[in-house]
Amino acid sequence: MAIQICPVEDIKPGKAIRVKVGDHAIAIVRTKAGDVRAIDDKCSHGEISLSEGFVDNETIECWAHGAKFSLETGQPLTLPAYEPVAVYETFVEDGVIYLEYDAA
Ligand code: FES
């Protein structure tokens, strides 16, 4: 199911927002190159919102203890996180970001 998120220009390159799909928090991220990525908002190391972290090209860094995650795979790239977080497909149509999300 594709869920409409927001106009792409509402998220500046290098920034992220937190959206809720039901009870599930997802970070919608724009890489510094402007591409759109979606990743579980909760850091796998603690109760911290990754959307409040630091976006680099294809990584997001948790502000709490510095774990970096790949925005393409969700894999942790640095300690202290060692569990991946889920990533989701997105697409942009007519300037609007959509998130592919299956509630099942
Ligand atoms: S809570 Fe994210 S690195 Fe510790």
What does this structure look like?
One of its GO terms (molecular function) is oxidoreductase activity, acting on paired donors, with incorporation or reduction of molecular oxygen. The chain has 104 residues and is an all-beta fold. It contains no helices and 10 strands. The protein has one domain: Rieske Iron-sulfur Protein. It has strands at 2-7, 16-21, 24-30, 36-40, 54-55, 59-61, 68-70, 87-88, 90-93, 96-100. The strands form 3 sheets. A 4-stranded antiparallel beta sheet has the order 2-3-4-8, with no helix packed on it. It has a 3-stranded antiparallel beta sheet with strand order 1-10-9, with no helix packed on it. A 3-stranded antiparallel beta sheet has the order 5-6-7, with no helix packed on it. The model has no long low-confidence stretch (mean pLDDT 95). Residues 43, 45-46, 48, 62, 64-65, 67, 80-81 line the site of FE2/S2 (inorganic) cluster.
